[in-house]
């Protein structure tokens, strides 16, 4: 009888305990603050390591949220703050009523806005009207990524399919709005889209051949938890590779179309074969520079990762076999091959469709040579 009563007591407590846990939520929100005073600033050793870490005690004014205007005390061991710095912090209230604040990040909006204005000014001063159109194309690309690509993926669309669709839209805006609605742009867009499709096929083959899962970093793991495993991360990785090479594909496609037009304009007596051969030579030089740019860009973005593997005791073969390292290698190789494939496609389309075409951007003059 006593065992039954004990069992009944435990059984009845379980739902109420679970219900109480559901009612209570430690995390209250993320708010904005400003450092009023650094009360204490010291260096401590992280327990179990020989690594030093800054530790601060600060007084800060809350700038928004339910505690706006209040002055709080924060123990900060995340990043170094100075008096006057604006930052974001998390606010927690535990079940016993204890309050805690944790520094999340520095507010970088003002310096980023200044840098953005410098960038816009430089584009407009150098590019003029075409620079303005390129900015419109840039904003269109950002809009497509944040308001079509990302919501579409989270809504359940196949990441690979929607990446190709969004890529076609981004290229359309980037090429036609920047370089105008003309035959050169049509040729550049057509050749680039063909290269995008072939790059996508190569990405699919490479990702599956290397058995990449798409979980190369902790961000993918967190996203998987937040979406409850609803996303196909392999397809997401392939889509990311396609989106990542759009800029360089656009660059080389437009350049090749312009080179072919200039060659025809400068000497109308040239045959299509001659122009193709000469334009291809320019394309090879361009590809050499862009492949180097692509590799250096990925290397720069992965420099902390490279240093980590350089300092680790694991062998080179073990390092490059890791998901994180292998993903960057595949991304670089697929992007480079896609870049290389763009040159002959766009050049071939250009010599077929741009002969006798007079570009309004051309600075050369034809003198009515007969063909």
What does this structure look like?
With 371 residues, this protein is α+β, with helices and mostly antiparallel strands. It folds into two domains: 26-107, OB fold (Dihydrolipoamide Acetyltransferase, E2P), CATH 2.40.50; 128-353, Multidrug efflux transporter AcrB transmembrane fold. It contains eleven helices and five strands. The protein has helices at residues 2-23, 109-154, 159-179, 183-209, 218-226, 233-244, 246-266, 272-301, 303-311, 316-321, 323-353, and strands at residues 27-45, 52-62, 71-76, 86-93, 99-106. Strands 3-2-1-4-5 form a five-stranded antiparallel sheet, with no helix packed on it. Helix 3 packs parallel to helix 6, helix 4 runs antiparallel to helix 6 (233-244) and helix 7 (246-266) runs parallel beside helix 11. The longest helix has 46 residues, at 109-154. The radius of gyration is 28 Å and the shape is elongated.
């Amino acid at each position: 009888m006593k065992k039954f009563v004990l069992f009944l007591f435990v059984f009845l407590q379980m739902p109420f305990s679970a219900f109480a846990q559901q009612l209570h939520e430690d995390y209250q929100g993320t708010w904005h603050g400003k450092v009023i005073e650094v009360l204490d600033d010291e260096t401590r050793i992280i327990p179990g390591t020989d690594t030093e870490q800054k530790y601060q005690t600060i007084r800060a004014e809350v700038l928004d949220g339910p505690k706006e205007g209040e002055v709080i005390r924060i123990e900060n061991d995340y990043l170094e703050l100075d008096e006057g710095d604006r930052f974001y912090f998390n606010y927690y209230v535990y079940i016993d009523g204890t309050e805690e604040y944790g520094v999340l990040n520095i507010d970088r909006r003002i310096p980023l806005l200044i840098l953005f204005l410098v960038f816009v000014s430089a584009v407009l001063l150098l590019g003029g009207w075409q620079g303005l159109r390129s900015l419109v194309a840039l904003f269109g690309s950002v809009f497509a990524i944040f308001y079509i690509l990302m919501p579409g993926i989270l809504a359940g669309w196949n990441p690979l399919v929607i990446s190709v669709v969004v890529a076609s839209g981004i290229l359309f805006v980037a090429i036609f709005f920047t370089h105008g609605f003309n035959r050169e742009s049509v040729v550049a867009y057509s050749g680039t889209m063909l290269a995008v499709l072939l790059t996508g096929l190569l990405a699919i083959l490479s990702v599956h051949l290397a058995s990449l899962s798409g979980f190369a970093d902790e961000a993918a793991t967190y996203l998987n938890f937040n979406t409850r495993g609803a996303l196909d991360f392999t397809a997401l990785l392939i889509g990311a590779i396609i989106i990542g090479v759009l800029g360089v594909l656009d660059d080389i496609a437009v350049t090749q179309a312009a080179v072919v037009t200039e060659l025809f304009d400068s000497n109308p007596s040239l045959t299509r074969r001659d122009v193709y051969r000469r334009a291809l030579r320019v394309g090879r030089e361009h590809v050499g520079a862009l492949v180097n740019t692509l590799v250096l860009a990925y290397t720069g973005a992965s420099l902390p990762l490279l240093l980590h593997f350089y300092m680790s005791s694991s062998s080179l073969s073990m390092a490059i076999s890791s998901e994180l390292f292998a993903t960057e290698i595949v991304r670089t190789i697929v992007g480079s091959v896609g870049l290389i494939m763009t040159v002959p496609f766009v050049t071939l389309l250009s010599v077929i469709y741009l002969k006798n075409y007079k570009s309004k951007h051309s600075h050369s003059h034809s003198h009515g040579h007969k063909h």
